[in-house]
Amino acid sequence: MRSIRYQLATLAALMLVTGCMMFARPPKDLDYSRTRISAAGSYRATIRPQGDSIPQGKLHRWVLHLEAPNGTPIDACQITVDGGMPQHGHGLPTKPKVTRDLGNGDHLVEGMKFNMGGWWVVKFHIASATGSDSVVFNLKL
Amino acid sequence: MSPLPNGLGRALRNFRNSAVFAILVSAIAGVGGATIVSVAAARGVQVQSSGWSEAERATLRSLSLTSLEPLAPDPSNRYGDDPRAAALGRELFFDTRLSGNGRVSCATCHVPEKDLQDGTPLAHGVGTTARRTMPIAGTAHNAWFFWDGRTDSQWAQALGPLESAVEHGGTRAQYAHVIAKYYRTEYEDVFGSLPALAQVPRHAGPVADTAARAAWQRLPSTQRDEISRVYANIGKAIAAFERKIEFMPSRFDRYVDAELAGRPQDARTALSKDEEAGLRLFIGKANCVNCHNGPLFTDQHFHNTGVPVPSSSLDLPVDSGRTVGVRQALAGEFNCTSSYSDAKSDCDELTFAVTDGNELVRAYKTPSLRNVAGRAPYMHAGQFASIDEVLSHYNAAPRSPFGKTELRPLHLSPVELSQLEIFLKLLTTPVAAPKGWLEAPSNQANGDRGHVSNY
């Protein structure tokens, strides 16, 4: 009986944990680096937020730099932006877009905004002659 | 009656009373030792003030009014910081001639003595609205206005109620006549010459009233545009008036400022144990600061928090919140990209707005919590009569009547809920405005207000 109670208590605790995990700390092993390799290895992407630090609650711009694995800048491509807060279950508060190719593999991303603190992810889907691939950046605000 | 089987319910109760539970909750909430203290406080154990961690101090700093950036110019309103426009806006704000029945002014619902709101679930102008009146102080910092963000500037917001059939109930042609008769000099000093109005009917505008709408349609498009420009300028003057209404520092701000400066807390700034415990909950375990962040305690965004359908809604259309609001903003006659806006290109909030998706369904704007304790009832239609009811709702996180709530159950104890409520009272503060700014102009108080006008 004691064992059953212990198991039930453990189960209940797990249920509570699951309920609260939505706002728990992010996983400890997240990679917050600003240069990442895309999922299938087609691109090396670097983000350069305007002003370097990422503000909370303000519209701002990023430059996304794209290279092939051999270092060749990628200019001609289609890029879409997505993201959100995995632990909260919601997306970005804005719909950022790549508005201009700046040359030398640089792409201007406008409409970036993060309306609360915590762990955010920003995902770029990239399609070019090199192939379709996506790259995810983790941010901590 | 517990919804759990007896054995499981008992085991769960035993577990929740254990120290292991307290530590587990603290670990989950991710605020370390400070939250253990809060959990202890919830059980009646004396709070031991352990100071604030660096991360907590950063959060406190972000919430202090001293972190509020100076008000940036509104690129869509080049008269926004013109004192002559603000003085005219003040006159217009209190003027009941800007209404269909001569009895309603902006101040009818935005009552100066009540933090510029009206304390009722739904606003009452010439009729009854479907939403709660929002306060004004500090709103010039906003990107979106109304509960659903259906306008993208303060001046466009001011125009919505003026032609609403249930708020001011008038028309833009009527208001242009009021300006020409009573405010010609003040108006023309700021905005230039008024158009000729001799041939313009007294009641005409794109409103619900069919006669006024038909009269509007009969006007040449150039004349409609001239009148709409006067109407837009009325909004810009009112916005210039409202931009000067900000917040004074509250007890919370004084506490944080002293804490961050390393000054000892004195009788004027110190928090009681329950107030401090409430603050720790607010920025920690209770997750309030997720959305109520920054010096105005709002993320300026829209969220579905599962608030109930108002009991008064039987006679109202379905309210889908931001879903409709963002479409209205994009199509808005007076939005940032319109010909009535002074913005050249800086309309990024509108350009990059999320325009579709489930997250917009029944999502409403996060209100500022400054002065929240004196501002019952709460939510977009005044569904909750007290802060206690609001906190109970957030603690339980029920399903949303439509769409999906972003809330998760908080499992806060009654003591913790009470501490949060005590903390929220720290945000009470007078509004900051120029001397006499929120008093009705004397010429209106003694003269033409309060009767049915010719316009």
Keywords for this structure?
heterodimer, A: 141 residues, mainly beta, Immunoglobulin-like, 5-stranded antiparallel sheet, 4-stranded antiparallel sheet, 1 helix, 9 strands, 13% helix, 44% strand, B: 455 residues, mainly alpha, Cytochrome Bc1 Complex, Chain D, domain 2, 2 domains, two-stranded antiparallel sheet, 19 helices, globular, disordered C terminus
Estimated helix fraction of chain B: 40-55%
Q: What number of domains of chain B?
A: 2
Give the overall average pLDDT of chain A: 87
Shape of chain B: globular
> What CATH architecture of the largest domain in chain B would you give?
Orthogonal Bundle
CA distance, first residue to last residue of chain A: 47 Å
The fraction of residues in strands of chain A falls at 35-45%
Task: Give the helix/strand class of chain B.
Answer: mainly alpha
